[in-house]
Amino acid sequence: MSRSIRRGTGVRAGINALTVAFVVGVLAGLLLTPDGRAWLSHPTLMFGGQANASATAAETAAVEAPAEVEAPVPTSTLKTRYADGSLTIGVFGDSMADGLWAALYRDLGDLDGVDVVKFSEVSTGLSRYDYVDIQAKSTRQLAERPVDVAIVLFGTNDAQAIVIDGQIHPFGSDGWKAAYAQRVDNLVELMRSRGAEVYWVGLPRMKSSGFDGRMTIINDVVEARMAALGVPYFDTVALTSNEAGGYEAYLSDQDGRRRLMRAGDGIHMSMSGYLRMADPVADRLKADLGVAEAEAVTATP
Question: For FRET with 167, which of 64, 115, 188, 239 sits at 20 to 30 Å CA-CA?
Answer without folding.
Answer: 188
